[in-house]
Design goal:
The protein is built from three helices and eight strands; from the N terminus they run E-E-H-H-E-E-E-E-E-H-E. It has 123 residues and is mainly beta. Strands 3-1-7-8 form a four-stranded antiparallel beta sheet. A hairpin with a 2-residue loop joins strand 5 and strand 6. The radius of gyration is 16 Å and the shape is globular. The relative contact order is 0.29.
Length: 123
């Protein structure tokens, strides 16, 4: 979700995804309900539903296919579907372990100022 006034090109490492679409978001309502001194925390999908103001908007043709970067537009929630293929090092004694992947804003100043998030994938 993007509650800022800027488009952020979000880039993933070690996995790709397909853009499913976007929803318009009531940013003011969301910030009033869940915002804090550090912005809006990461929320579960069900917690966002009351603030979605549109149906799913299909991606444009140039966003079809596998991607590792997606534009997250102001006032929208971007929906992607990723398939994670664990590396061979993810197995400990034959058991798959939780893996950590990263995604970040590709605007250098944002990346340098910690606009970065970990994605943990459990077996």
């Amino acid at each position: 979700m993007n509650t800022t006034g800027d488009t952020h090109p979000m880039h993933t490492h070690l996995f790709t995804f397909r853009v499913i679409g976007r929803y318009d978001l009531d940013v003011d309502g969301l910030v009033a309900a869940d915002g804090g001194p550090n912005g809006v925390p990461q929320l579960e999908v069900d917690e966002l539903k009351p603030f979605l103001t549109s149906g799913l908007i299909a991606p444009p043709p140039e966003e079809t296919g596998l991607k590792d970067t997606v534009k997250t537009h102001p006032g929208q929630v971007t929906v992607v579907r990723a398939k994670f293929t664990p590396p061979t090092t993810a197995f400990l004694d034959g058991q798959l372990t939780t893996q950590k992947y990263v995604h970040h804003c590709h605007i250098v100043e944002h990346e340098d100022n910690d606009m970065m998030e970990r994605v943990e994938v459990a077996p």
